[in-house]
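Wed. Picked up where I left off yesterday with Acetolactate synthase large subunit. The coffee machine is broken again, so keeping this brief.
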Amino acid sequence: MTATTHPTAWAALADYLRHLGTGAVFGLPGDDMALLGELERADTPVVLCRDQRNALFMATGYALAAGRPGVCVIGKGPALTNALTGVLEARSAAAPLILIADGTRLDRLGTGAFQELDQLTAVRPYVKWAARIDHADRLPAALEKAAALAVNGTPGPVYLELAEQLADQPVTRSGSWRPVAPQRPSPDQDALAATAERIAAAERPLLLVGGGARHRNTGRRIERLAERLGAGVFTTASGRGAVAEDHPLYCGVSGLYTVAPMDALWREADLVIALGSRLEETATFGWPEDAAQLPVVQAVLGEESLVMERPGAHVLGDAGRIVDGWAELLAGHRATGDWPERIRTARTALAQRAADRAEEAVKRVPEGAVPVSQVLAALDRAVPAGRVLVQENGLQDMWSYFFPHYALGTGGGSVVPSEQTPLGFGAAAAVGVRLAEPAGRPVVAVVGDGAFNLFRCELPTVADAGAAVLYLVLDNGGYGWLQSNLDRVSGPASRFSFTTPRPTGTEGVSLAHGLGYARVTNAEDLPAALSAAWQRVASGTTSIVEIAVALPDTPPGMTAASGDFPERE
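Structure written out below (tokens, as returned):
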């Protein structure tokens, strides 16, 4: 077996990242620039960020869009603690991610060394695996294990800490690097048959497609299964993009984002087939309160994702292979009854309701602001249908979660925050998504001004990275969701405020870095502004369009903010 010796640990790491096929490395390294030197020689793209949290968000966006590991490199001590919000999001989003951090020298541990921290203890609750490398001969195996754990089972982040004394130590490995492709386990045949039997017996099934089905819908196998069953198809927010939203059985995003008349389908259904979903609270919001009313067949990759609060059954394995297995076992099955027609009728009624609600919302918007429904309609006309929409989760940008106010175009994609919804995730993740997607595929980020303000320090990063993203910033003066909750408690006379109209300063920062910028306060000006912005993005330049929106312009079905979730009609 041939042995390969790398002059330093950083040289070995750079070679391994080349082996991974890493399209970009994100981060803010510590004082040691040796890794950057090695990556420069390796021609690996590097996105140097201004904030470690944003670096993790970008790497997570890259991982979700690409379906392969995102890589992030940071320093030590406060660099790690600053990154933990991003690591939490990667774990919650089941994004394969490798975080590499500096660590205090072995001979200085426990001496109060500069930025010394027990980093393993700090990071372990947030990752699948964490290891510190103190000896050069352990590095190759640790790198290979980290990648294997990141992509296999339920994907997630892993952490490697490279002690500072490794910087100048040679690293020898035996043989070639191992393959990194995830292994897709087949389901147990008995479990597959048992769940197929329950599915065949259902008369009014619904199919819930979660984030675990991302990149697993080759040949539209999920839609074909739905057609065979006559099942309505909902997605979770993170599962959006896995199925075609122009399919006649598609019903929208489940739970928090389901409105009448589609919400009635959950009360009428006799079985939910949950594919790649952890059944998180936002996805099941509004389901029948009596759990026994709605049994669930769960199909997930990892047993830790199972939810046992509802009756039903489960099968473990790769989402694509489970669907293929069900399709084979149900080959002779045909939908009966009027359930498919009931779904089509609800879709027709939803389209009319959406038009009515958009018209009602326009009446609530004062002069000097633009209705969000018109922003989404203008986006649909200005940018090609195959776009990827990257979202935040604030008051006004929630409009884009509601079908059919926003529907993914043919071949369109979506990246959203997980149920953790860290502020600023979507704005930063869009950079990673852009670098993961083919050059010609549009990437659009719809974000609130509160989230964008947390991200603005990265505008130089966006310019340096050449990541052309169209940002639509919905400006309601601050944190609209918090303001709505405050108004509910204190009324308009409160001495506190989360929203105050003021100049954002985005124009100067954007233009200083060669980015496009426009501000829109009138709906009539919006189409031209979006068209011009998209032309700049298509030519390779990020463009930011700030759009004044109004707090009363709340998403459909929402009567008021009420803590974490809205009050519903």
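Quick read: Residues 119 and 181 are 29 Å apart (CA to CA).
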